[in-house]
Each structure stands twice: as C-alpha cells, then as structure tokens.
Amino acid sequence: MMVDTSVIKVSSRYGVLGGVVSFVFGLALYLLYKQNPYSEQTELFSTLIFVPVFVFLGVKYFKKYINPELSFAEAFKVAILITLFLAITVALLQLLYTLILGQDLVPQFILEAQTELVKSKLELTKSVGVDNYEMMLKEVSNRSALSLGLKQITLRWLVGFFVSIVSAVFFRK
After folding, report:
1. Which of 106, 100, 94, 112 is nearest to 47 (CA)?
2. How many CB atoms lie within 10 A of CB 34?
3. I need a surface site. Which of 47, 66, 147, 160 has the fewest CB within 10 A?
4. Per-residue confidence band for 2, with pLDDT thresholds at 50, 70 and 90
5. What is the mean predicted confidence (pLDDT) over 154-164?
6. Which residues make Cβ contacts (< 8 Å) with residue 173, sequence separation at least 6?
7. Domain residue spans of the chain
C-alpha cells in the first residue's frame, strides 16, 4: 500500500500546523497563567480542541482540492497521518522547550501530580489498593521529559484515531 505524495503533503501541512498551534497554546497558558503544559488539564484541553479541528480541516481540504471522490480508506489515511504529524510535532516542540528553557516544568509536574495523589489517597487506596497506590506514587516520581512527551503522543494519537474514523465516515464518497 503506497502512500500518495498528496496525502503526505496535506497531512504534514495540517499535522505540523496543528502541532505548532497546540504547542503555542500550551506555552501561552504556561506563560500567562503558570499552567504546566504537561498537566492533565492542558493536555486534554488542547488535545480535544486541536486534534479534531485540524483533522477535520485537513480531510476537508483533501476532499475539496485533491480528491472529490474520497474513499473511506483514503480519508482515514489522511486523518491518521495528520494526527501522527500533530502528535509528534507538539511532543518534539515541548521536549525542545523543556530541555532548553523550561527545565522546571518536569519537576513542577511531578510535584503537582504527587500532591494530587496525596490529596486523594483515601479514595485511591479504596479503589486500587495500597500497593497500586504506592506504585502510582513511584511511577510519577520517575517521570522525565521524554516519558511525558511519549504520553502526549499516545493521548493525541488515541483521540486522533477515533476522530479519524469519524471524519473518514463523514467525508467518504
């Protein structure tokens, strides 16, 4: 199965643009409101806003200007590649920013996550058990910029996978 160059061009254009916009959004929240870009709220908010928007716009552009007879498979291919480019772009930009200018982001994230775990210790130990709670605390302490970036890629890709299915069904011939 060959990937058409027009699929790559459109997917990379919308995916990279979506990744840059998502990164700038997270950076703006950090600079204006001190909201850590690695926090669950920022990640979920930017993922649920920007992934569907850029997947939809990219597939719509592809159908309108490249292939009006768009099949489900081709629409899905465009959408999933947009998601992949977006996820990798935002994670790489976040990683570069963290390594160059924002070395305090990861320790800040770890501290915030540990604080949340400690605040909800009673409920968590009831639902997952003491051993799993201790494992969660240990796992949060071992986070790095790379592991947080991989988490971002995974979250965006999973959301994008489902958005890709929906947009492929919506835009098919």
Report:
1. 94
2. 8
3. 147
4. low
5. 96
6. 69, 70, 71
7. 5-102+145-171
Task: Render pLDDT for 14-26 as a digit per residue (tens, 0 to 9).
Answer: 999 999 999 999 9
User: Has residue 173 got a pLDDT over 80?
Assistant: no
Between CA 173 and CA 168 the distance in angstroms is 10
The percent of residues in the chain predicted with pLDDT above 70, rounded, is: 98
Tell me how far apart the alpha carbons of residues 20 and 46 are, in angstroms, rounded to a whole number.
11
* pLDDT number for residue 103: 87
DSSP 43-95: HHHHHHHHHHHHHHHHHHHIIIII-TT--HHHHHHHHHHHHHHHHHHHHHHHH
Give the list of residues 6+ apart from residue 11 with CB closer than 8 angstroms, or none.
58, 78, 81, 82, 84, 85
Residues 6+ apart with CB under 8 A from 139: none
CA distance 81 to 9: 10
User: In the numeric block, which tokens belong to residue 71?
Assistant: 């099949």
- Sign (positive or negative) of CA dihedral 47, 48, 51, 53: negative
